[in-house]
Automatic annotation (TrEMBL):
Name of the protein described by the UniProt record: Antitoxin
Family membership noted in the UniProt record: Belongs to the phD/YefM antitoxin family.
Organism of derivation: Sphingosinicella soli
Chain segments annotated as coiled-coil in the UniProt record: none
Biological role: Antitoxin component of a type II toxin-antitoxin (TA) system.
Length: 91
């Protein structure tokens, strides 16, 4: 995706906000808002935002899991399953 096609000045957004919000929701793309020629903000539809937040949460969980493995706080799945089977048969 070419970002340059989605860079708009804040004055454009002020004038066409309602239309652009509908368009963003349909296209599911980002819009970069400039002020005095510099990009100051990124506007995106809520579905894309929520998807990005979900992805970040998953990446955080994966990173925490990797930290646990590196710290030796992990056990092989085979060992865990065997222990669960033993507990289930004892009950």
């Amino acid at each position: 995706m070419k970002y340059s096609a989605h860079v708009k000045p804040i004055s454009f957004l002020k004038t066409y906000a309602a239309d652009e919000l509908l368009d963003l929701a349909d296209r599911r793309e980002r819009m970069f808002i400039t002020q005095n020629g510099e990009v100051k903000a990124v506007l995106r539809d809520i579905a894309t935002y929520e998807q990005a937040q979900d992805s970040l949460a998953l990446l955080k969980l994966l990173a925490l899991g990797n930290q646990d493995i590196a710290a030796g706080r992990a056990k092989p799945a085979r060992e865990v399953v065997q222990r669960l089977k033993m507990k289930a048969s004892a009950d």
